[in-house]
């Protein structure tokens, strides 16, 4: 097995021990930062506020459940020093992971486009329109490329841990206090009762869980650098849970779904400084999406240097941000949930239940299956279940779906179908041996 010994090209091979240097604190900082975002505020506005206590419970439960899944997926990477897309190989097969690579790259390009659009629009508003949107998109594209070339270790240890995330935490608390107290002429009572959606508790739960689910295909790309898996697990879980809760609550109370209206509200009511701080932190999210796009592509062709890939994917994101408007953001989140909830239910079941976490690193590479039909069939059944029960479905199952949501049923049915098929396969193999 060839280990990565030269960080001139972060690839998909297992890391040498000298690169496993990140502590639990580093992961707390990283995933706190990645849990922060203007898009989370937008998503929070879709949670029904007719019952504030119920909405808060949905946010807390969804954040905890989603963050546990996120940390468990990251632990596979930190256990074996491998990136996310490689962690899917034992469950879906080597050739099967190529399909998942394409799926993941598409969603990462989508996220990058969203984020660059928001960054550029926010900077345009902050500069009072003196610098055009497309110029800002090029500026941020350049910054993102620089971040990616520096690599995750320097960004996490030098930029996030020492500066960025703590400033953002402080400004987030100030913004939340302002909303709750109704400062700056905001009518908090009206805001709290102005939810833009009639989502039920379980539909709201789906929307909250969808955010950490969207990071599942990326988490091991960074958690593979952990000194200790246990510390990385808790740092990831605690960090993402806290900021996901905070920003969904801000979105719930603010009650504004349009992302550009949110930018204007922050600029007008919460001081321009708050907008600047969020712009600073939003860059980290795009960096993570672009860097992981490169890592995912290298699953198919590992020989190309990741630096060329990050330049390519950044240019794609910048171009698309100037061509594609942001609409129906909540549907994008629900589609991600429909795909990655059952997918990682199978990955985690295969690793933690079937293999009990005992798997050699070679199983991710040379000794890997080519394609696992059982996994893809279970994935298909789980995704269809999610789509049928979700609010974006055209089928008439609203009353039933309102009571159970989409995420929990899709995860449950994926796991059950996968375990049943694997059990039957095992029995057939034993019978043939006899």
Describe it.
With 434 residues, the chain is an all-alpha fold. The chain has a single domain (21-327), classed as Hydantoin permease (Orthogonal Bundle), CATH 1.10.4160.10. Helices cover 73% and strands 0% of the residues. It is built from 19 helices and no strands. It has helices spanning 24-34, 38-44, 52-80, 84-87, 89-92, 94-126, 133-150, 152-181, 188-192, 201-215, 219-223, 229-254, 259-269, 271-297, 306-321, 329-354, 373-389, 398-404, 407-433. Helix 3 (52-80) crosses helix 16. The chain is globular and about 75 Å long. Residues 183-196 have low confidence and may be disordered.
Task: Describe what is shown at a glance.
The protein has 434 residues and is mainly α. The protein contains 19 helices and no strands. About 3% of the residues have low confidence.
Instruction: Output the CATH topology.
Output: Hydantoin permease
Q: Considering the protein shown, what is the CATH homologous superfamily? A: Hydantoin permease
Largest sheet properties? none
The domain tally reads: 1
Fill in the keyword field for this structure:
434 residues, mainly alpha, Hydantoin permease, 73% helix, globular
